[in-house]
Write a structure and sequence with these properties.
- This protein folds into 2 domains: 21-84, Fe,Mn superoxide dismutase (SOD) domain (Helix Hairpins, Orthogonal Bundle); 95-205, Iron/manganese superoxide dismutase, C-terminal domain (minor pseudopilin epsh fold).
- Strand 1 and strand 2 form a beta hairpin.
- Helix content is 52%, strand content 11%.
- By secondary structure, the chain is mainly alpha-helical.
- The relative contact order is 0.15.
- The structure holds fe (ii) ion.
- Residues 27, 31, 79, 160, 162, 164-165 line the site of fe (ii) ion.
Length: 206
């Protein structure tokens, strides 16, 4: 078994005008695919050959000797999570996610403002995450391929901050790309699904 290259959960042009078909064709079809292909090449003939992508990410984290595998596998995982974090008609969170955001940030506007600031202040390539931390939601950014799953955190939603994610459509205007995500593309239904899964796991462990 090899790591699978997942299809997009929407058409290449479904996020237009915010993210173009050209960006999606390159970002998903070239960048994401290369991370998956590189991961498969690096695990062939090793004890990780049949492991799940999550297990490969965790097993290769934090060691110089497996840095190339970690970078490719973590990027494969992050991108698969990113596509699910987007949808053609974004909107505002509801239900349990809305309640968790209001517990943590008082209002959704304050959350979006904090998420935008963190995304803008992040230097270089990386990711902006909404994470579950106990009963609350936190915002964090990670550099390059780093993913919160190796730190035992539960991601709810992510935004790709690599230039390959927005340069064709927004050039150097990262702020406009971040704002398009927050106002038009964020898939809060996916965040709610992740929140529910985390709550069920917690209940099962108690
Ligand atoms: Fe990317």
């Amino acid at each position: 078994m090899t790591v699978q290259f997942p299809a997009l959960p929407f058409a290449n042009d479904a996020l237009e005008p915010h993210i173009s078909r050209a960006t999606m064709e390159t970002h998903h079809g070239k960048h994401h695919k290369a991370y998956v292909d590189n991961t498969n090449a690096l695990i062939t003939g090793t004890p990780l050959a049949d492991a799940s992508l999550e297990d490969i990410v965790r097993a290769s984290a934090g060691r110089k000797s497996t840095a190339a595998l970690f970078n490719n596998a973590a990027q494969a995982w992050n991108h698969a999570f990113f596509w699910k974090s987007l949808r053609p008609t974004g909107g505002e969170p509801r239900g349990a996610v809305k309640a968790a955001i209001e517990r943590s940030f008082k209002t959704f506007d304050r959350f979006t403002s904090a998420f935008a600031t963190a995304s803008m202040e992040h230097f270089g390539s990386g990711w902006a995450w909404a994470l579950l931390d106990g009963e609350k939601i936190k915002i964090a950014t990670t550099s390059n391929a780093v993913t919160p799953i190796v730190r035992g955190k539960t991601p709810l939603l992510v935004l790709d901050l690599w230039e390959h994610a927005y340069y064709l459509d927004y050039r150097n205007k990262r702020a406009d790309y971040v704002w398009a995500f927050l106002t038009s593309l964020a898939n809060w239904a996916f965040a709610e699904e992740n929140l529910r899964t985390a709550s069920n796991l917690k209940l099962a462990a108690e």
